[in-house]
Amino acid sequence: MAEIIAFVLIPAVYLVALGAFIPFVPAIAALRGLALVSQLLARYGTTVFGVLYRRTPEFQTLPPYRPQDEEVKAYRNYFFGPGFRDLRQLLTLARRSYATTVGDAFRAVTSRQFAAPTRSRAVTVPYGVALHLGLCLGAVLAPPLIGLLLILHASVLALLTVGARLVAGILRTVDRAFLAMRRLRTGMLCPHCFERVPYPAYDCPSSTCRRRHMDIRPGRYGIFRRRCECGRRMPTLLMLMSRNSRLQAYCVHPHCGKPMNTDAGHMREVVIPLIGGQAAGKTQLMAAMLLSLEHAAANGGPALTLADEESDANYQVLREVLHMRGHTRATQKALPRAHSFVLGRNRSQRLVHLFDTAGERFVDRDDTDALRYARAARTFVFVLDPMAVKAFWTTMEPAPGPLLDRTLGSTVDPEEVFARSVQAVAAMGAPLDRSRLAVAVSKTDLLTEHGLAPARPGDSDDTRTWLCEVLGLRTLVQAMDLHFREVRFFRTAAVANEEAGVDASVTGFVEWCLRA
Asked: What is the pLDDT of residue 318?
């Protein structure tokens, strides 16, 4: 009887039970497969979160883009490298997570249902087979779903990358358009080396960093803001820098690298070189020009702001000398630094550079070749000292009284200075035929005092006639008309009066120089 039960009844009952279990196998397999797919998708979501947000070591398979490894010490914009690096990491980690999860699931079922079941294998093996079928189904269904998510991620990343680069390109184009509107197509003028700077370098605004950033415009290292290695953010466009947040600009030429004006690039630039022989009165005339503009600003005219500390310090000294009617120190022969100031308000602002060059440089051709700033000028000032003309001492008769001190005049013939300077400036490529020339006859206050010049200032034609007929400079005047589009003559007196103003002759001269 025991044999019948053991070998007939029990197998029969088992087969009946197994037959009743078989219809449930698809449902069990489907549920287990769905569970595996859900588990794999959850693991994928965790991986995405870890790669994109947490960024802890377990989610990093590729070295990061570090600022210290970049040519410019700044963090890359996400859409210029890091985004696709994260995508590659996600592919690697998703593949690893899939293999690990599926492998662990099969091993767990094999261990619990086949190798070391807690119940009889007659019960666990069929159930284990159903689970294995479900795992196989889930292992087949999950990769296409994960692949679709990866494709969606890559598509969105590619779209955003194209968009980011397009926005960066548009912003750079807009920035160039703004520079073109300010007549800075070829760049800004460095006040030290006189070269055009297409786009300045800027120091990090953090007081504890001061890393220098080349070409901060939108691109690899930021669209609207650039993040320095120290973590400080800085604007990428000149139009994003307010008056109070402008960064210190630096020349990008290797032989220079000196600081430029903070206002460089934010407004139109005007370059006015003062040409003249040694002791012709260029420095005093420049000081009188600045004092005239300051006096006009105080009386409702265009606002005047010195553009940098050095220009301000030099001007304060020159102004005091003018008030005391003293003599300015001779300009050093070293290459001059521009005396820069901002004139006007809002959209009418202009960054004006006045260059006062030592008279010795207009005698030696090798020295004049160094005056590269003249290429950017469209208005030139030629300071003509009548006392440097030989005919002045031979044909003019002074009024009774103290004789005029010859040592107060220039020792260089104006015709020689003009010929050499024009030759040098033309050789540098300056379009003289499209430029204007203001001829400032200097020291007329001193000449008038000794009866050697007309008492009234006179207009341009009167001054031209006086130079041609009285001083015998007709050849020089004709040469000026030949080389320049427009020539205007002024009799000037670089002296200050008690009201902190300047001689009326300087006011009209300054207005003409800054016109256009």
From this structure: 73
Residue 290 carries which DSSP code? H
Q: What are phi and psi of 391, to 5 degrees?
A: -65, -20
8 A C-beta contact, residue 358 and residue 330? yes
Measure the CA–CA gap between 170 and 177, rounded to whole angstroms. 10
CA 22 to centroid of chain Cα atoms? 75
Residue linked to tokens 């000292």: 385
| CA separation for the pair 368, 362 (Å, rounded) | 6
Kindly give the residue spans of alpha helices, DSSP state H, lying in 264-325. Answer: 282-298, 309-323
Residues 440 and 450: their CA atoms lie apart, in Å, by 19
d(CA 116, CA 202): 70
Indicate the pLDDT class of residue 222, thresholds 50, 70 and 90.
very high
Nearest to 265 by CA among 171, 311, 202, 207: 202
* Tokens 């600081």, residue located: 259
**Strand ranges (DSSP E) for 75-171?**
none
What confidence tens digit (pLDDT) does each residue in 249-279 have?
899 988 888 888 888 888 888 888 888 887 7
The amino acid that residue 139 corresponds to is A
What is the rounded distance in angstroms from the CA atom of residue 282 to the CA atom of residue 273? 10
User: What is the C-alpha to C-alpha distance for residues 38 and 36, in angstroms, rounded to an integer?
Assistant: 5
- Beta-carbon contacts of 414 under 8 Å, excluding residues fewer than 6 positions away, are 276, 277, 280, 382, 384, 385, 388, 389, 473, 476
Residue 92, pLDDT score: 95
Question: For all residues of the chain together, what is the average pLDDT?
Answer: 83
Distance separating alpha carbons of residues 385 and 279, to the nearest angstrom: 8
According to DSSP, residue 466 is labeled I
The conformation of residue 229, written as its DSSP 8-state character, comes to T
